[in-house]
Specification:
A two-stranded antiparallel sheet has the order 1-2. With 207 residues, the protein is mainly alpha-helical. The longest helix is centred in the N-terminal third of the chain and has 28 residues. The protein binds protoporphyrin IX containing FE.
């Protein structure tokens, strides 16, 4: 099944690389101490590379939203309210129990359903909630003159910063879990193979 068009594969590789640069340089900025001893990268290069990767990620994000709006790929993210919790629990139960008992995937991949319910909700939350908040708060920090100065007596810049590092933290955790769940296809390499070649190989099930 051809499930990953070229544009989504290019978007994904750029997104992943920029994310890694942002995490390393972000942590470097956060943990550089007063004596300016560098964490992984020195403070000045960390700022430069963080800004560069952020701009690339933002442009890339616009391509992601536009691509999903203009092509059928966006359909895969649509979540229906019907059986929402039930399906989510089914998938969670599979990952925490069924999988180890050799049960079959409760929501096997088909042409119509690329993502299982858990993938769907986490991808929607990551891409349409966390990433936009990360980008908006990042713009606020890059251009402090446009950021609200006070919000209920608290510095707007500090609040923007808290929002930014919280989203960065959530998305870093998302990325670790995401890479782990991507090893849970038919074979540990199946889903990575799909994201590289575009084709998802389904060995045991078609429906
Ligand atoms: C560099 C580390 C990463 C690796 C190795 C990786 C791996 C994968 C793989 C194998 C898939 C295909 C399986 C699937 O469709 O679920 C996938 C899809 C996806 N990944 Fe990642 N990923 C990484 C980073 C990220 C990051 C940082 C984000 C978002 C912030 C992300 C968001 C997504 C999304 C939204 C999809 C579905 C795309 C679509 O088909 O429409 N990934 N990833």
């Amino acid at each position: 099944m051809y499930l990953y068009p070229k544009w989504i594969r290019v978007w994904h590789v750029v997104n992943g690389l920029m994310f890694l640069i942002l995490i390393i340089t972000g942590l470097s900025m956060q943990y550089t101490d007063k004596e300016n001893a560098s964490f992984v990268v020195g403070f000045a290069p960390a700022v430069k590379w963080h800004n560069f990767a952020a701009i690339m990620l933002t442009v890339n994000y616009i391509i992601f939203v536009a691509g999903n709006f203009l092509t059928t790929n966006g359909q895969y993210y649509k979540t229906s309210r019907e059986n929402f919790l039930e399906d989510l629990l089914k998938q969670l139960k599979y990952y925490s129990w069924g999988m180890f008992q050799g049960e079959k995937h409760p929501f096997p991949v088909t042409e119509k359903r690329k993502f299982n319910p858990l993938q769907k909700i986490t991808y929607v939350l990551a891409m349409y909630v966390a990433v936009p908040l990360l980008i908006i708060s990042g713009i606020g920090l890059l251009f402090p003159e446009i950021t609200i100065t006070k919000f209920f007596g608290v510095s707007g810049l500090i609040l923007t910063d808290i929002l930014h590092i919280t989203m960065g933290f959530f998305l870093s955790i998302f990325m670790v879990i995401h890479i782990y769940t991507c090893t849970l296809g038919d074979k540990p390499t199946s889903l990575f193979h799909g994201m590289i070649t575009g084709y998802h190989k389904s060995e045991e099930h078609h429906s």
